[in-house]
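Build the 3D complex.
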Amino acid sequence: MRSRHVALFLAPSLLLMAAVFLVPLGQMAATSVDGAALSARAYEELAASTLFRRVLANTFEISLGSMLATLLLGYPIAYHLSRVPPARRAIYMVMVLLPFWTSILVKSFAFTVILGEQGIVNSLLRFAFGPTAALPLLFNRTGAIVGMVHYLLPFMVFPILVSLLAQGSDLHKAARVMGAGRTRIFLRVTLPLSLPGVLAGCVMTLVLSLGSFVTPELLGGRKDLMMANLVDFYTRVSLDWGVSSAIAVILLVLTGMLIVALARLPGEHKLI
Amino acid sequence: MPRQSLLTIAAAWACYAFLIAPSLIVIPMSFNNSSELIFPPTTFSLRLYREFVGGADWMSATRQSFLVASLTTAVSVAVGIPAAYALARADFPGRRLLGMVLLAPMLVPTIAVALGLYLYFSSLGLSGSTLALVLGHSILTVPFVMVIAMASLRHIDANLEVAAKVMGAGQMTVFRRVVLPLLAPAAVAGALFAFLISFDEVVVAWFVSGIGTATLPVKMYSAIHWEVSPVLPVVSTLLTGLSLVVCTAGAALQKKDRADG
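Done.
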């Protein structure tokens, strides 16, 4: 292909990305330092703010908690998918893909019905253990994490599934012939070989959860903000665009570092 | 293949149930005969659907979402397909870096993109416009269209293009007459996913839309957040149906594509 044609094919996409992605992010970074003034005012305010420190801690606690819970639920799914015959796998896969393509608002709304004071879970609890058995599951950290785990699960399942399917069954046969039991095979062969997928899934879910906005806003505690919710607060309520930009820049740097770490992982789990 | 123990199967099924439960419970709720949001509903009717169709603000938000998603789909296919072709077939310095820039919006936190666009469109005097929504959604959907098209191009024999060139076709003719027809299933799949992503997108729309240009997800977001409207199960059911249709059609197209190629 001649370079003239390459340029012609790429020009529209590059123009769009430059004008609607790179320039806006650049403007945001500039806003965070007050443009040409290069002032560190917004960052100094954040460094001194107890609210920001609490939100930063919340963000990491909720994200790490969600990541671990997602791993605990995602691994059995990936393991099950890797062990069923390919024709049946496609059917099970729908159950992972449908939530992946379902609007986050639909899921959030459904969880308000499932987890609420009069919700399905609490009705079942009252039915089973008497009228005082209800648990606070919504508008607190539990609600936020349940919603996040649901949103993150496909991103954990896919990389683990890839690393489980790449193992081939010869290794397991060999281990069995040598006398290893099922648990031993899992712990000594399957699990260690799937660790690159686990790691890729963990980094991916962490990246996504650090920036999540809708789930903590709709299912989480009203005072249990995450970074993205604070960005919204400073943009719309305080109208302090310098501070909201600074928070977004910090979030961008944090996730950027994680993505670079992910790209350096060994193996075929590269995203790009 | 070793058989799985009952315990792992039970654990997997519990996880599947957790995954699909939210999508499933909204459907019976939407046929509830009362405005109370309860599950399971006691009597059934289409009352909430009538309420949704009769609600002027819900209808205008739905129309706006259709408009934005359609325009976004057109832009992302027109922009993404040629770019995917160039990245898949041409070799030039900086190709990997360029590919990364074009796919970056998939990995950058949406809230950062949304705030950047909010500031940018405000300074251009475009905030609250449909144009701003379409452009903002396009950068999120172009990477998806590109990834799907590039995967398909890997299965399309590049020798067909060489043959066309040997027979005297110019690069543009090759693209139009050879590549595009072969890429059509992938382009349609990409278009479907682009439409769905834009139709469901809420964070960028929340920051960029204005009072007259609020999309369905923006209206839904405020309805869940502040008013808890009785038509929410209806909107949820319709959105789930749309996801199901797009997801199945897109997967079928991609599968057919693999089989043909």
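Chain A has a mean pLDDT of 92.
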